[in-house]
Amino acid sequence: MLQIVSLFVLVILFPVTLTAQQIKAALYLDRKAAVPDWFEYSPKDKGLVTVGPMSRASSRNVGVTKYDIDFKKQWTKQLYSQQGRERIDHVAVLGENIIVFVAEDHPKEDVVSIGAYQVDLSGKILGERKEISRSPRNRKGKEPLRYSVSPNKKKLMCFRKEGEKGGKEKLKFFVFDESFRKPEEAGLELPYLAEQFDIRVVRVGNEGSIFVLGRINKTDSEGIEKWQYTLFHYSPQTQKAVEVPLKFADAWVIDLTFRIDRDQQILVAGYYSKRGGEGVAGIVYQRLDAVTHKALVVTQYPFSEDFKGRYLTQRQLEKGKELENLYLDNILPKSDGGVLLLGEQYYVTSSTYRDLYGYWYTQTFYHYDDVIVTSVSGDGKVEWSTVVYKRQVSENPAQLSYFEVVSGEKLYLFYEYREKEIGNNVFSQSIDLQGVLSNRKPFLIDYHSTNIFYRSLCEQINNQEAYLVYFQQKRKVFTLLKIGFPG
Asked: I need a labelling partner for 133 at 20 to 30 A (CA). Which of 44, 103, 404, 433 fits?
């Protein structure tokens, strides 16, 4: 049974405690309804697409369901009946096309194939499954097909590593546009051995260019790793790649990523250390022209002593100790050409004990603590760093960490948390343009400790809206909310 609840009823059932957000639509799938494996926003009509089993009782028949802007069901179409060797690999919505990628194992041939179904927004299935890729199965060093969507959501890139140990690292690309005609296929051989080159991020630009960020291991004579980062820009027009070395003076860059902004400039940012190892001393930032690859802005900025003093003692500061267990999660482009860096403190502990019968057990605990947000302006100046204080620990990390949404006015963070006198809830905090942090507030009423917050399934769909996903364990109800934010 599919239950669609109007906004009026929804506000009664799930009142929102934050005035800055509002729930615009809700989809409730109860214990009799099939729970989707995948869902995607449809930019063309602002609707919702879900893909998965057509019944909760059986996963044999897999189908696509389309909802309108208010999550009212429009149609459901069966795609295929699986034989136990197939799985959904990816789903994308490009223009009028819903593309469902399916991976299928072929044990006798020792290969795995990736095929794609194309369904238009009216529910018409356009032809049979089209094979996109075929690669060796279960072979060491072989990686699955991965996917990246352009910033304007009009290009989809599939890519796979093909480098062999002892040989040069290689990548193979397949780029689709909104028409989903035969993809543009290309390959790239990098001038580094596969075992020496670590590919970090691969992205596709609005016009179909491919950007590859990687690092080369430059371990020194004392055994300290000092990675050299480099960026490759592949042009489909020239079918050639240009290497852009990323140089950072007197610093061990330990975490780095990049984004392509709306002006087709390359924004590179991350953390660095002055001592090597995994400590963090501050941030690095570069803004490059995507055509000339000239560095327009270069910044290397240490965290202030006051800021580090939140985590380190005075004696540790005097010895030059750096922040520990801080990992870069994401960078978000800003309208002025700068970025927001989002990092989170993460570490793992274990505890070993013996029960009454003499058996030894080891428990592993995952810790996700403070989120550190740093704002860098378009001219490379660090404007502020703000800390979202939290402590999350569990043997199951699936519900830990946070989900971020950026609007024109603020950055919002959502995370499941237990607070005294309130209990478990999905809490929200916002940071404004000046770095001012709001108080932590529960976002949902009637949220129980047994509920499961699917942080990794949450998604920002445009500048004003996002999907928030959780499962009501007691009622066995899969819940997807569309929430709105000021522009």
From this structure: 44
Q: Are 197 and 216 in contact (CB under 8 A)?
A: yes
The DSSP result for 21-87, as a single string, is -EEEEEEEE-TTSPPPSEEEEETTTTEEEEEEES-SS-SSEEEEEEE-TT--EEEEEEEEE--SSEE
Distance CA 403, CA 415 (A): 6
DSSP 442: E
From 341, 307, 317, 311, select the one nearest 327 (Cα to Cα).
341
What is the reported pTM? Answer: 0.88
Tell which residue, 54, 53, 38, 46, has the closest CA to residue 71.
46
Gap between the Cα atoms of 86 and 102, Å rounded: 7
Q: Which two tokens stand for residue 12?
A: 């009664």
Q: How far is Cα 238 from Cα 480, in angstroms, rounded to an integer?
A: 44
Count Cα atoms within 13 angstroms, Cβ side, for 343.
25
Q: Of all helices (H) and strands (E), which one includes residue 201?
A: strand 197-204
Amino acid in position 44 = K
Name the maximum alpha-carbon separation found in the chain: 70
In Å, how far are 32, 125, 204, 330 from 76, measured between CA atoms? 16, 11, 31, 35
> What is the spatial distance between Cα 205 and Cα 211, in angstroms, rounded to a whole number?
8
Q: What percent of the chain has pLDDT over 90?
A: 55
Overall average pLDDT of the 253-276 stretch: 90
Contacts of 246 (CB under 8 A, 6+ apart): 229, 230, 231, 253, 256, 268, 286
Complete DSSP assignment for 102-124:
EEEEETTTTEEEEEEEEEETTS-
And the tokens for 318? 């005097």
Can you tell me the mean pLDDT for 450-455? 91
β partners of residue 320: none
In angstroms, rounded to a whole number, what is the distance separating the alpha carbons of residues 375 and 381?
A: 8
Q: Where are the beta strands (DSSP E) in 290-432?
A: 295-302, 326-333, 339-354, 360-376, 382-388, 392-394, 403-406, 410-419, 423-432
| 432-464 b/e (C-beta count within 10 Å ≥ 16 → b) | eeeeebbebbbbbeebeeebebbbebbebbeee
Integer Cα distance of 294 and 111 in angstroms: 43
